[in-house]
Amino acid sequence: xxxxxxxxxxxxxxxxxxxxxxxxxxxxxxxxxxxxxxxxxxxxxxxxxxxxxxxxxxxxxxxxxxxxxxxxxxxxxxxxxxxxxxxxxxxxxxxxxxxxxxxxxxxxxxxxxxxxxxxxxxxxxxxxxxxxxxxxxxxxxxxxxxxxxxxxxxxxx
Length: 157
Description:
6 helices; about 0% strand; flat; mainly alpha
């Protein structure tokens, strides 16, 4: 087998990610490559790429958690602004007199979905903070409070 170029390796990793989203096994991923005429990849290479993808994800979240607070908050803010923009568009569609009832229903579904996504973003913020504290070997204030409460209960026995 010839060694894939840097671009091919990136493409292969993206294909593997796409296949993982579809819950393909390693063998099914290999078959997918072969069906699509890509025969210069082995099962071992797929496993190595999957490992690199996992390591990259771990590195990404660790960097995000260690980054200055402003960086990840700015990223969240951009996603929040994006969702709010979608919501405005959904309301325009819904409130337009020319919009047909089925389209209005779809706009309402979009509003509901975007509201859920917005809520998920807000809910996820404390997780990043907890990872950041953990990664810096600091005890999260909630964990400390629970631990101290349990120690106090044990002292009273």
